[in-house]
């Protein structure tokens, strides 16, 4: 969460309820602890639900099929994990930012015996997801509310294979979850060979993405980035995804990662580890 693309026929994140496509239905509208929430039924899939937070598409859940990943950035994350650790290999995953936990549900189905922690700041959002979006704790999944940074600080070193950063205030990663000190916490939690996946939303100037890249490069040996070509060219705003790791280059499957990101119906453009410095330019890391 969030995603700058939504299923065909749905509102854009800035759309109004009056423009709902034929057959769509608002199932819930109300406030969580920190956001205005709305849930719509997918007119093309009776079990599909789209969650908006403050008008931004935050999660898509198929109540009947955890393998149905509608958002492209979630598909990318799942594919990248599949390259690094082929399914059904279980993983220890920490999700910082949960919304309706679509990726956690997918990993629970595709990688039985995985151990997953979801940290979500908005307790009322978790309750809404339980009540309206079928979020049930299952073996290997725990959902914790409150301050994710404080929880990360209490974690044992090497206790996660993957940390996924998918937390937002509006369209920005919260200050507490983007700086050099926080990334030091993330690196401490990661086991040898572990990876940090980060979702960001960027405008045409890509200034925030460059700062995120600079911050990641300060902490990790290898940084990889993937995004829509129009976003990278400054013609559009959208999701910019990062993968950061201390894996040595000879253990980093760059070719396979490039393939899963640049093939299919909506191919991305990637920034390889040896291109990251040029992408960063004179951008400075986020502090804190």
TrEMBL record:
<dbReference type="InterPro" id="IPR029063">
    <property type="entry name" value="SAM-dependent_MTases_sf"/>
</dbReference>
<keyword id="KW-0620">Polyamine biosynthesis</keyword>
<dbReference type="GO" id="GO:0006596">
    <property type="term" value="P:polyamine biosynthetic process"/>
</dbReference>
<feature type="region of interest" description="Disordered">
    <location>
        <begin position="1"/>
        <end position="22"/>
    </location>
</feature>
<protein>
    <submittedName>
        <fullName>Fused MFS/spermidine synthase</fullName>
    </submittedName>
</protein>
């Amino acid at each position: 969460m969030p995603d700058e693309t939504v299923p065909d026929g749905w509102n854009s994140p800035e759309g109004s309820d009056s423009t709902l496509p034929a057959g769509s239905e608002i199932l819930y509208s109300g406030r969580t602890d920190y956001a205005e929430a709305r849930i719509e039924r997918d007119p093309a899939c009776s079990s599909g639900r789209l969650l908006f937070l403050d008008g931004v598409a935050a999660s898509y859940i198929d109540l009947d099929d955890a393998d149905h990943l509608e958002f492209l950035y979630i598909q990318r994350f799942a594919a990248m994990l599949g390259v690094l650790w082929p399914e059904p290999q279980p993983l220890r995953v920490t999700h910082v930012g949960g919304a309706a936990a679509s990726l956690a549900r997918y990993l629970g189905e595709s990688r039985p015996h995985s151990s997953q922690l979801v940290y979500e700041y908005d307790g009322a959002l978790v309750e809404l997801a339980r009540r309206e979006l079928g979020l049930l704790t299952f073996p290997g999944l725990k959902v914790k509310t409150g301050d994710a940074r404080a929880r990360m600080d209490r974690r044992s070193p090497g206790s996660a294979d993957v940390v996924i950063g998918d937390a937002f205030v509006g369209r920005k990663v919260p200050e507490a979850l983007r700086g050099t000190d926080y990334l030091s916490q993330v690196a401490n939690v990661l086991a040898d060979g572990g990876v940090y996946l980060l979702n960001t939303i960027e405008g045409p100037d890509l200034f925030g993405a460059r700062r995120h890249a600079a911050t990641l490069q300060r902490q990790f040996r290898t940084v990889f980035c993937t995004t829509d070509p129009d976003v990278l060219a400054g013609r559009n705003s959208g999701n910019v995804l990062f993968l950061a790791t201390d894996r040595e280059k000879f253990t980093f499957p760059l070719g396979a990662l490039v393939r899963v990101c640049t093939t299919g119906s909506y191919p991305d453009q990637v920034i390889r580890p040896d291109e990251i410095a040029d992408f960063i330019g004179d951008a400075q890391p986020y502090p804190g």
